[in-house]
Amino acid sequence: MKWKNHLSELLKINYPIFQAPMFGVATPEMVTATITADCFGTLPLGDLDADKCIEAIRKTKSLTKKTFGVNIFANEIPPITEALKEQFQTTKDYIENFAKENNLDIQLPKLEDIKVHSYHEQTDAIIEENCKVVSFTFGNLDGATIEKLHSHNVILIGTCTSVGEALALENSGIDIICVQGIEAGGHRGSFSNENIPQIGGLSLLAQVTEKVKIPIIYAGGVYNPSTIKAAITCGAQGVQVGSLLIGSKESGLKDFEKERLHSLTEKDITLTKSFSGRYARGIRNKFIETIENTPYILPYPYQNKLTNSLRKLAKDQKNADFVSIWVGQSLHPFSEESTHVILSKLIQDTNAIYPS
């Protein structure tokens, strides 16, 4: 396959294959292994505070001298109202009782103890650490932040799940767009979390390609040569892989979570807001089945912060019914080899089937 294009030249990579910034799964070691395969690695920072961002960036820098991206969340933070306080307490009580009924004795945090971080406080840390590629999701950055990052020669990659979002990103001066299809694992990158776009990936990609002029990365269901070829044919200059790597040696998933991947069927995969308050695609379990479609889901990020300690306890106890394992619709063997090996094999297989 002909890999070289404007996107690969811009980011100085041989293969425009991007490792998805999976918060909690993509580790500095995964980022480094991706780079070793001559692909592009991205370190997820999520909503970490500035000090933890610096710590994660410096750890990754200690493993590789090459450029890598960092990923942040651009969502708006809902104000704390009396209604939210009441809903929080009700949700907290319900989930605590539900957990105890399932042998998970835990005291969830109070609302006043929850710390919510905005991307604004991460920006200076990113600039200080001389990061030159920043991707973001859950919305768009404000104009001042875009200008500030561009003034430090930072390349910006925004995520869209609709044509309207793609146009908004292009019009605000974002350099590259990542088009996320409905097939993708993990959290939806939608600007709004209410009326979530349900657009199939290749259909969305083709439409966005017709509307915008900046380079496009496609994410959603990419895991083999034919899905790469389909994305490139529909107008993408690069592809993003996430679920392909979640079982890898460098993945942050625990062994029992990786084990669960090997018995998946189509009916096990669902979209849910139950763990975080934002739609995400992952493995259906008891927590999701009980909480979804109930009043016990707070707006993001409060639900995510509330359930965080519960998920950590469930991980420690190897309880797959109370952890969030995010995975997309393209089921495959979920290799446990190194990310470097998985990506190198993907490139080799693609070249064999689609020679340049």
UniProtKB/TrEMBL annotation:
Biological processes annotated in GO: response to toxic substance
The name this protein goes by in its record: Propionate 3-nitronate monooxygenase
UniProt keyword Disulfide bond, yes or no: no
Coiled coil, from the record: none
Reactions listed under catalytic activity: 3 propionate 3-nitronate + 3 O2 + H2O = 3 3-oxopropanoate + 2 nitrate + nitrite + H2O2 + 3 H(+)
GO molecular function: nitronate monooxygenase activity
Recorded superkingdom: Bacteria
Named cofactor requirement(s): FMN
Pfam families registered for this protein in UniProt: NMO (PF03060)
Protein keywords: Detoxification, Flavoprotein, FMN, Monooxygenase, Oxidoreductase
